């Protein structure tokens, strides 16, 4: 479990890359990089990918799983070992603030990915979000676009 840190794009990029390397080696798990008392960048295995999709890093033992990263409400799952079970921030109407990105096998732009997450965190930290990820108040602000140039692969 990681401590809450203040990240720069470069330091978060290093942590994400380290998490990806560890996940490839271990072929299971999830890494939680805490941004504040509620939100974290989680890096882990997500189910539902085509085993023949060569744009993602597949699990060696479960090829429908691929490595993804997203801002999630880290307190929503006590164990934080299953990426898919950790809640993303969500609104009362059921819509979610989706930041999930799949990691490409040839990815070298971890600074771009980290910048994307830090910019999204700047928006989310202004919201009132409880431990489960529930966002109270304003209407959804999910841009579902990527102005920082990190990939085009959304799941």
How would you describe this structure to a colleague?
The protein has helices at residues 9-26, 110-124, and strands spanning 30-34, 39-47, 65-73, 90-91, 101-102, 128-129, 134-136. It is globular. It has a 4-stranded antiparallel beta sheet. Strands 4-7-6 form a 3-stranded mixed beta sheet, with no helix packed on it. It has one domain. By secondary structure, the chain is α+β, with helices and mostly antiparallel strands. The model is unreliable at 139-155 (pLDDT under 50). Helix 1 packs across helix 2.
What is the secondary structure topology, with strand pairs?
Blueprint: H1 9-26, E1 30-34, E2 39-47, E3 65-73, E4 90-91, E5 101-102, H2 110-124, E6 128-129, E7 134-136
Parallel strand pairs: 4-7
Antiparallel strand pairs: 1-2, 2-3, 3-5, 6-7
Helix pairs in contact: 1-2
Structural class: alpha+beta
Q: Looking across the biggest beta sheet, what order are the strands in?
A: 1-2-3-5
The residue fraction in helices comes out at 10-25%
- The share of residues in extended strands comes to 15-25%
Total tally of structural domains: 1
DSSP strand tally:
7
The whole-angstrom Rg is: 15 Å
Tell me the series of helices and strands, N- to C-terminal: HEEEEEHEE
Mean pLDDT: 86
Span from first to last CA? 26 Å
Largest sheet: 4 strands, antiparallel
Q: What overall form do the CA principal axes indicate?
A: globular
Low-confidence stretches: 139-155
Counted by DSSP, the helix tally is 2
């Amino acid at each position: 479990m990681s401590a809450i840190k203040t990240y720069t794009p470069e330091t978060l990029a290093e942590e994400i890359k380290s998490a990806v390397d560890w996940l490839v080696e271990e072929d299971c798990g999830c890494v939680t990089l805490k941004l504040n008392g509620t939100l974290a960048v989680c890096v882990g295995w997500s189910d539902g990918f085509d085993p023949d999709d060569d744009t993602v890093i597949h699990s060696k033992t479960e090829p429908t799983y691929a490595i993804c990263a997203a801002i999630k409400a880290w307190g929503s799952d006590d164990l934080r070992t299953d990426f898919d079970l950790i809640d993303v921030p969500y609104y009362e109407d059921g819509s979610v603030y989706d930041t999930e990105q799949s990691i490409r096998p040839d990815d070298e732009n971890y600074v771009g990915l980290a910048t994307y997450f830090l910019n999204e965190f700047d928006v989310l930290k202004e919201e009132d979000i409880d431990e489960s990820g529930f966002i109270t108040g304003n209407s959804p602000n999910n841009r579902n676009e990527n102005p920082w140039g990190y990939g085009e692969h959304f799941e």
